[in-house]
Write a sequence for this structure.
């Protein structure tokens, strides 16, 4: 894992001093709230419904045990004992005091962490594959590029006040686990003997995003040599900075500019700007050097793996059988099946700790007790490191297969082994109306009600892969557009309603879901889910996942089922029913 | 109009100096440039005004005496007028780039383009809604003079430039620290 050198450390330390001064000026009244706002946002500090909220960056999702313990400490000392892992590989603390945020940032700086550019109209925390460096289907470890671009984007002076927020995602595996095309810029790394002498190159997608106008990004340039990424991205951002709309918040994202110009024209303008930058000898100093690569990449070498032989799941189960009672056996088997992922190195696996307990905590929430326990598990079983997934779970990436049982037992004590990864109850949800001041409706009680309705693990396993994503408003923090089933909170005359979309998907066949029809009341949602799921079960062919059945049949049968009982629920009974 | 500006030459130190330039919005244009306020004898006119007047002999005469500069508004597409700007290089002692509101970052790119693409060597001055917390970014993209909004505390402003001793991307002033470290 990347280790700060004195440059990184100096930068975050000085950033704390800078922010302390800005907070002081705010508190003594020489800095107006309106002028402080973009400054605090660039330090991840929001003002939410009840309190300030601090969003801390976890660059490309990588954490070590010590950092996680610090997050636990912050949760205890400055918040209410928990944190919320987000779809953008950040963690949020919902109840912090403005006066204390400089101290929190100082605490973070001690363990090589910060909240720089986790919000605001600048380049945000760069996200990547939570299984980077270990995934069996990876062809390039994206982390050195992630880190080089993290540094390049940190406090970038030209792009501190863009028209709108700007999000990068970077992928280097066959299966896209980054929702690449839903980012302002998606960088797909390639290594091909026929281009750039077999060196690393990047295909650049631009103009994707969710929100009010969901759009998948377009390919605007192939085979950019990795060294040239700074000048290419400068050109791209410069075009956006100059010509992105600033008159209307909702039209200010790069996706609107790319759409308005057309991807070809946008690409042409970027190319024009880039040629200038690139041809200019002075500017070519912007290029990443081999020495920089080596400085960074040396931190992403493989940990000290032991030479082991690979075990099949059957072998693991039969080894475990003698040590487990019958209900434990089922639990462990399911966990192996759903929560354990293949690894590049024989004898190792990655284990996902589910932060989606049925009905008892908000998706992505972890208590300080859990965080400390997970830090210990990471130390004991996974070289002291872990990852945050954009589905809001945590991963111990380098576990010896033979230790999986011990890990499972230990994690079970902290309610972290629910075998629901990729299943209907592995819900992605934003904080919604319980915390967020922009919300039209609550998200968390909906997630809870669905998890309670579908609490039968046998049934969930039988249903197989389904993604269900919930956002409390059109900003789409819960990624509802790319859920196979999406739930969106909408406001109608001051009441909370929920709109359903179907057919969204992340991964290589990413697609944006379609609205099925008029919205529902909160207390109708569990029944609607049952209707959708029953339709799938009735119509599927053997082994056909939900999304394929939907793609084969279209929306009609699902829609029909969802509205069959519509009207049964009264307005009054819905109010507060799930709240 | 601030009576003092921050001057921060590329190879020098930031300091307060008297403001000699009056920013003129181009309104009430009767063919010439307006009467200058007491104490000021130089004027920064809007680029869109210059485009229509730069053939006027009176204006060229004043320009030749070093009394006229131009400022670019945030939505001026300076690349569209490359020839006029090239010619302006030998006429204008100072150019300005305007921030209509502090959180509009277009003029950061304008300054970067003036330095990178036009190799502009003279002063580039930040004008408009220029606040203390924009100075660092401005200094790095190519600004070397700042006329702050009148309510800003210039002493606090001057301290900003010492905040960071390292940077992680190249800029007009310096190379990223990470190159030397590699
Ligand atoms: C509670 C405070 C939050 C606020 C005020 C907030 C605000 C916003 C806003 C205004 C947008 C719309 C951006 C646009 O379309 O231009 C947005 C989008 C988004 N936010 Fe949040 N958000 C919050 C929490 C979260 C959380 C907890 C997550 C992750 C679980 C998250 C992840 C995202 C994502 C992934 C998007 C959509 C991305 C896109 O369109 O590119 N946000 N958020
Ligand atoms: S989707 Fe809306 S309600 Fe949910 S966190 Fe984002 S802004 Fe808030």
């Amino acid at each position: 894992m990347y280790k700060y050198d004195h440059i990184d450390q100096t930068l975050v330390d000085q950033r704390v001093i800078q922010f302390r001064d800005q907070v002081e000026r705010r508190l003594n009244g020489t800095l107006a709230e309106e002028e402080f706002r973009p400054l605090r946002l660039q330090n991840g500090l929001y003002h939410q419904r009840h309190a300030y909220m601090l969003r801390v960056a976890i660059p490309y999702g990588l954490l070590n045990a010590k950092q996680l313990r610090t997050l636990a400490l912050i949760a205890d000392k400055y918040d209410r004992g928990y944190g919320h892992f987000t779809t953008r590989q950040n963690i949020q603390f919902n109840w912090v005091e403005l006066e204390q945020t400089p101290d929190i940032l100082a605490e973070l700086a001690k363990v090589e962490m910060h909240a720089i550019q986790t919000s605001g109209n600048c380049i945000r925390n760069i996200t990547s594959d939570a299984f980077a460096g270990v995934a069996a289907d990876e062809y390039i470890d994206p982390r050195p590029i992630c880190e080089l671009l993290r540094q390049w984007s940190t406090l970038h002076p030209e792009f501190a006040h863009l028209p709108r927020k700007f999000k990068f995602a970077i992928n280097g595996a066959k299966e896209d686990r980054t929702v690449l095309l839903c980012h302002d810029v998606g960088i797909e790394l390639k290594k091909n003997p026929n281009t750039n002498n077999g060196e690393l190159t990047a295909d650049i997608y631009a103009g994707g995003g969710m929100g009010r106008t969901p759009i998948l990004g377009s390919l605007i340039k192939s085979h950019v040599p990795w060294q040239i990424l700074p000048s290419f991205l400068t050109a791209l951002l410069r075009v956006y900075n100059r010509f992105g709309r600033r008159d209307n918040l909702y039209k200010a994202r790069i996706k609107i500019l790319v759409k308005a110009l057309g991807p070809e024209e946008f690409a042409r303008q970027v190319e024009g700007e880039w040629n200038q930058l690139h041809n200019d000898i002075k500017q070519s100093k912007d290029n990443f050097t081999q020495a920089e690569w080596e400085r960074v990449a040396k931190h992403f070498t493989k940990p000290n793996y032991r030479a082991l032989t690979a075990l099949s799941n059957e072998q693991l189960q039969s080894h475990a059988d003698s040590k487990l009672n019958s209900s434990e056996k089922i639990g462990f088997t399911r966990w192996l099946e759903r929560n354990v992922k293949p690894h590049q190195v024989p004898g190792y696996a990655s284990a996902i700790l589910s932060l989606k307990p049925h009905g008892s905590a908000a998706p992505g929430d972890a208590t300080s007790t859990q965080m400390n326990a997970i830090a210990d598990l990471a130390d004991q079983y996974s070289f002291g490191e872990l990852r945050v997934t954009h589905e809001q779970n945590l991963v111990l990436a380098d576990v010896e297969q033979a230790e999986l049982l011990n890990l499972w037992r230990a994690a079970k004590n902290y309610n972290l082994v629910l075998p629901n990864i990729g299943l209907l109850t592995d819900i992605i949800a934003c904080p919604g109306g319980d915390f967020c001041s922009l919300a039209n409706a609550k998200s968390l009680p909906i997630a809870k009600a669905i998890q309670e309705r579908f609490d039968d693990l046998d049934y969930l396993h039988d249903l197989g892969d389904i993604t269900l994503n919930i956002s409390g408003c059109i900003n789409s923090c819960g990624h509802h557009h790319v859920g196979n089933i999406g739930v969106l909170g909408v406001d109608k005359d001051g009441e909370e309603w929920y709109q359903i979309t179907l057919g969204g998907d992340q991964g290589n066949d990413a697609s944006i879901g379609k609205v099925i029809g008029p919205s529902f009341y909160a207390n109708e949602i569990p029944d609607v889910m049952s209707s959708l799921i029953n339709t799938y079960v009735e119509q599927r062919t053997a082994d056909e996942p939900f999304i394929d059945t939907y793609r084969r049949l279209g929306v009609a049968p699902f829609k029909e089922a969802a509205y069959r009982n519509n009207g049964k629920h009264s307005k009054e009974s819905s109010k507060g029913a799930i709240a | 109009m601030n009576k003092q500006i921050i001057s921060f030459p590329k190879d020098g130190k930031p300091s307060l100096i008297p403001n000699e330039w009056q920013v003129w919005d181009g309104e009430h244009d009767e063919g010439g440039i307006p009467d200058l306020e007491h104490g000021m004898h130089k004027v920064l006119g809007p680029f869109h005004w210059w485009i229509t007047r730069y053939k006027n002999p009176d204006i060229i005469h004043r320009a030749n005496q070093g009394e006229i500069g131009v400022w670019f508004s945030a939505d001026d597409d300076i690349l569209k007028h490359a020839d006029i700007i090239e010619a302006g290089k030998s006429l204008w002692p100072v150019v300005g780039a305007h921030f209509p509101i502090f959180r509009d970052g277009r003029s950061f790119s304008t300054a970067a383009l003036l330095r990178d693409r036009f190799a502009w060597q003279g002063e580039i001055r930040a004008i408009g809604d220029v606040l203390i917390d924009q100075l660092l970014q401005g200094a790095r993209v190519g600004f070397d003079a700042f006329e702050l909004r009148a309510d800003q505390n210039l002493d606090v402003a001057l301290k900003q430039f010492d905040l960071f001793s390292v940077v992680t991307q190249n800029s007009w002033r310096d190379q990223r620290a990470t190159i030397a470290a590699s």
Remarks:
- Chain A touches chain B at residues 5, 7-8, 10-11, 14-15, 17-18, 22, 25, 30, 35, 38-39, 121, 151-162, 230, 238, 241-242, 246, 276-277, 280, 282-283, 285-286, 289, 291-292, 294-295 (CB under 8 Å).
- Residues 291 and 297 of chain A are 10 Å apart (CA to CA).
- The first helix of chain A runs from residue 6 to 27.
- DSSP finds 19 helices and 20 strands in chain A.
